[in-house]
Design a protein that fits this description.
Length: 565
């Protein structure tokens, strides 16, 4: 019995998608704030729609909603201290018995209280697929949607694609869907079921009173709020704008910072590139961070905000660490974004490429981006990729052995060798299989690990792992989820043998750190020292792109990706 919706003709789906996008764009052009983004994003099937305005740079700066504390309440000890600036007061707004209430104070505390429920709460969803990155999750979501299954993208820990909970709203429908998928040979889906006898409730302690509220709006006259985490790393951060505590999809809470885009960049650029780099390099990072933020505001539509504050989006630390040098770069590039054919680019970047940038599809599922292709990361010609294809293992090993002539030469993690013992590999891979609900998770030991497919740019596309219980494959960026040892997918493997030629583990030999797509932050330091301008650096790493001011003529994100951008 088929429960999923009947799949529509693909052309009809694309036409509907474009019609919805047109409506969304018109709505956004009438509203310079990003506050309407989440409502519009829901039109596209949970995080799959246009989600940023084409606002002219001369208009009021757009506002972003950043989840700065994403899983508040996941631990009973979670706590936050809120502090006003000297001479200022904080304002707290919430509802009490359906009526608006306002409280002011110079400081307050947020914590959680575990409430016992009258009846245990059944929390259940159909997980269709699990991914290391949002990019792959979104591409997977579109494929499920094309099969007629309404979906939503979530991030309980790793990124996941769920069958839309409103559609599959009871246990029977969820199990019928799963049976249907299994009958069609789709084995990645499973039902995640949790029975919760308790749930955390957020509490605001202010002026000696405790208010247990799910939503609290927090502001100040001077527009800054200091937040101290009282557990864990006890991080202290100063935020501009306002804060909002709100429930998320996972039964906990998110502290959201509502902040203007250009102010947001003050908390991103110094932490992503370092304030000590030369000015053109800082300007490059400011342009990329601005472009990335506007293109990616759809990421957390399921949770009612737009971006996170860690490496799953961009590192953001509020005004803490803001620096005059990066502030100058932000001001010098104000309103400037990187585009391709009048659309914002996927402005991804990484710490180090290892000497060659990775095409988008070497790392993630989805359509190619013509401007994200293999580029030898050098101002010289240390390698002729056209004549020496890195898909050939002998060429790749010679490439990795070459240490001179690249923009990153001499830098940490440009070249590396990491050994992993068999017991460590067994533990890491078993953890990965358990999280994926894979039946091979009960294996005892790995018998063989081998690279079975490599791209022309040298990236590992497939790793085959043979265990005593069976064989499975790791694909693209999921390789880095299961294998802790390699720093990137630019590597080869060598077995390590002990006495009597018994397998002891594997050595991973490679280069770079991170996904390697787009700009190398390490490489830009070298180019900046050579006197390259910001636009020249961007053209090098993103061929065919153009710098443009934000305007109504720019498309922020095209859901169908038919143009490959």
């Amino acid at each position: 019995m088929r429960i999923e919706c009947v799949a529509q003709d693909q052309n009809a789906q694309d036409q509907l998608y474009r019609q919805r996008a047109t409506v969304a764009v018109k709505a956004l052009l009438r509203q310079p704030s990003l506050g309407v983004v989440l409502a519009i994003a829901s039109m596209f099937g949970l995080g799959l729609g246009l989600a940023a305005p084409g606002t002219a740079a001369t208009r009021k700066d757009v506002e972003l909603q950043i989840g700065v504390v994403q899983r508040f309440g996941s631990k009973a000890t979670d706590g936050l201290m809120l502090q006003a600036a000297t001479g200022d007061r904080l304002t707290f707004r919430f509802e009490t018995k359906g009526k608006a209430q306002t409280v002011t104070a110079t400081s307050a505390k947020l914590d959680v209280v575990q409430q016992t429920l009258p009846e245990p709460n059944l929390q259940e969803r159909v997980v269709l697929s699990t991914h290391r990155s949002f990019e792959s999750a979104e591409a997977s979501a579109k494929r499920w949607l094309a099969q007629g299954i309404p979906v939503e993208v979530a991030q309980p820990e790793r990124w996941q694609v769920w069958a839309k909970r409103d559609t599959y709203s009871n246990p029977l429908l969820r199990r019928l869907l799963l049976q249907s998928l299994q009958a069609q040979g789709m084995q990645t889906a499973y039902i995640d079921t949790q029975v919760l006898p308790q749930q955390p409730r957020a509490s605001l302690v202010v002026n000696g009173y405790r208010y247990t509220r799910d939503r609290v709006e927090i502001g100040s006259s001077q527009g800054t709020i200091q937040v101290l985490q009282t557990s864990g790393d006890k991080k202290r951060t100063l935020y501009a704008g306002s804060l909002r505590l709100q429930p998320n999809t996972y039964g906990t809470y998110t502290l959201v910072n509502q902040v203007p885009l250009e102010t947001y960049l003050r908390g991103v650029v110094p932490h992503e590139i370092g304030a000590w780099a030369v000015q053109p390099v800082l300007e490059v990072q400011a342009i990329l961070a601005r472009t990335y933020a506007l293109r990616n505001v759809r990421r957390f539509a399921i949770d009612g905000y737009q971006l996170c504050a860690d490496t799953q989006c961009q590192v953001y630390n509020g005004l803490t660490g803001a620096h005059p040098a990066t502030d100058r770069a932000i001001a010098a590039t104000r309103g400037t974004v990187l585009t391709y054919k009048n659309e914002l680019v996927d402005a991804v970047y990484s710490s180090s490429t290892g000497g060659i940038t990775a095409p988008f599809t070497d790392i993630w599922a989805g359509a190619d981006r013509p401007y994200l292709r293999a580029v030898i990361d050098s101002v010289g010609q240390p390698w002729d990729l056209a004549r020496q294809n890195l898909a050939e293992e002998k060429n790749f090993r010679r490439f990795i052995s070459q240490t001179k002539g690249f923009n990153e030469a001499g830098a940490n993690l440009f070249r590396w060798r990491v050994e992993s013992r068999l017991e460590d590999l067994n533990r890491d891979i078993r953890r990965y299989l358990v999280a994926s609900k894979d039946p091979l998770a009960n294996f005892k030991t790995i018998q063989r690990l081998e690279v079975t497919k490599r791209s022309p740019a040298g990236r590992v596309l497939n790793v085959r792992i043979t265990t005593d219980r069976g064989t499975f494959e790791l694909v693209k960026d999921n390789i880095l989820v299961a294998l802790y040892a390699p720093n990137s997918t630019l590597f080869y493997v060598e077995p390590l043998y002990g006495a009597n030629k018994t397998l002891q583990g594997y050595s991973f030999v490679g280069g770079g750190f991170g996904h390697g797509v787009g700009l190398s932050q390490t490489g830009t330091y070298h180019l900046g020292k050579l006197g390259w301008s910001s636009d020249r650096i961007l053209s090098f790493y993103y061929p065919g792109t153009q710098l443009r001011p934000i305007s109504d003529a720019i498309t922020f994100w095209r859901g169908d990706q038919n143009n490959g951008s």
